[in-house]
Amino acid sequence: PEAITIQELANRMSERAVDVIRLLMKQGAMHKITDVIDADTAQLIAEELGHTVKRVAASDVEEGLFDIVDDSTDTETRSPVVTVMGHVDHGKTSLLDALRHANVVSGEAGGITQHIGAYQVVSPESGKKITFIDTPGHAAFTAMRARGAKVTDIVVLVVAADDGVMPQTVEAINHAKAARVPIIVAINKIDKPDAKPERVRTELLQHEVQVESFGGDVVDVEVSAKNKTNLDKLLEMIALQAEILDLKTNSQRPAEGTVIEAKLDRGRGPVATVLVQRGTLRVGDIIVAGAEMGRVRALISDQGETVQEAGPSVPVEVLGFNGPPEAGDRLAVVENEARARQVTSYRAHQKRENAAASISGMRGSLEQMMS
Ligand code: GTP
Ligand code: MG
Predict the structure, then answer these.
(1) Is 164 annotated as contributing to ligand binding?
(2) Which residues line ligand 1 (CB under 6 A)?
(3) Which of 123, 313, 318, 341 could link 79 by a cystine bridge, Cβ 3.0 to 4.6 Å?
(4) Which positions are annotated as binding GTP (predicted)?
């Protein structure tokens, strides 16, 4: 529903808000300056004040930004994007560290993951790449899903064999099911003397995750991030699942992707971690994400290296946004800055209107409560 506050309408016409209110009063409606009126009423008022009105529809502005519907040119195979989920301390980051021969855990404050990491791992067997996303809890994943962003092809559910299925394990299962993403279970910490992998399988059954040995179709792998046990097998199972999913893309087009996280860095300015999903993102590209725009100044790989471009399923840090976008925002490359400005100013305006509308809605209900 398109709507505008009286203040904003007056501002855009360079008229006084009281004059708008007076006109509305003539039509029999009492309004405050902060009230929201619908687009039709706003148009009537504007015309009465001698202005011509040009209404811009979302479909005009957003037109052609994303080729979501047309995937007929997606003929190249792309790497799977795997989100690692599970209860706190069950070993998500350790497992990823082991897979990529790195050590992120020891650098984390209190051993707790604070922000999202996105990495590519090359399978030693097949030489194929897998993109992994490490999540702090599920807040980020939830936020992205709530905004309709689909970034994950497969969920690796990490369950510590000595601890079993815990509340966040169940949350992760529910997320994966709601998003219709296949689960691969990594039963971790099997090196521990009190590890009970069979108990984990039984507990999973209670949450409708039926592993193969129980007659289901969910693959499970017993691993130890500590001793690097069965990591090849886990990679192999992911590769197999990816083959079944038959993931396709087109790298020969302007990039489309999703913002995984973004922040304002003191030295580098706005920095966004972006997962490129189609096309190729290049230095110099003009980009929009949510209500932010920019020109790609630098791209930094998961290895911390400066790169000139990033193709499908590749996570990169993007420098050059005018402000940090939000997690879950879709990124698109546009032809020129004028187009970028058109899109982002429309979205920024839309955002303000929505905020104003929800505030005035709140006020309305407060008043109802008072009377
Ligand atoms: P959050 O990011 O806080 O949710 O935790 P996480 O799931 O990333 O767990 P993390 O990798 O930080 O590991 C938690 C603890 O478990 C650390 O002390 C690890 O050393 C330990 N750990 C992880 N994997 C294993 C394993 O395979 N065996 C043993 N014995 N300990 C492990
Ligand atoms: Mg972690």
Answers:
(1) no
(2) 86, 88-94, 105, 111-113, 136, 188-189, 191-192, 224-226
(3) 313
(4) 86-93, 134-138, 188-191
Q: How many CB atoms lie within 10 A of CB 361?
A: 11
Ligand closest to the CA atom of residue 137: 1
User: What's the CA-to-centroid distance between 84 and ligand 2, angstroms?
Assistant: 9
Distance separating alpha carbons of residues 301 and 307, to the nearest angstrom? 6
What is the token pair recorded at 250?
Answer: 């087109």
Q: Which atom of ligand 1 is nearest to the CA of 105?
A: 12
The alpha carbons of the chain give a radius of gyration, in whole angstroms, of: 25
ipTM of the modeled complex: 0.99
Amino acid identity, position 293: M
Cβ neighbors of 148 (< 8 A, separation 6 or more) are: 328
Distance 359 CA to ligand 1 centre (A): 43
Pairing of strands 154-160, 183-188: parallel
- Ligand number nearest to the C-alpha of 172: 1
CA distance linking residue 355 with residue 111, whole number of Å: 37
> What residue has token string 């404050």?
109
The DSSP 8-state label assigned to residue 113 in this structure reads -
Strand, coil or helix: 301: coil
Which residue puts its alpha carbon closest to atom 29 of ligand 1? 189
SS3 (DSSP) at 84: strand
pLDDT for position 371? 35
Q: Are 319 and 325 in contact (CB under 8 A)?
A: no
pLDDT of the residue at 135: 76
Whose CA is closest to 217, among 182, 178, 180? 182
Block mean pLDDT (10 aa), the chain, length 371: 78 90 91 87 88 71 60 87 92 92 70 75 84 74 64 94 95 89 97 98 97 95 97 94 94 92 92 95 97 96 93 96 93 92 86 72 48 35
Q: How far is the CA of 91 from the centre of ligand 1 (A)?
A: 3
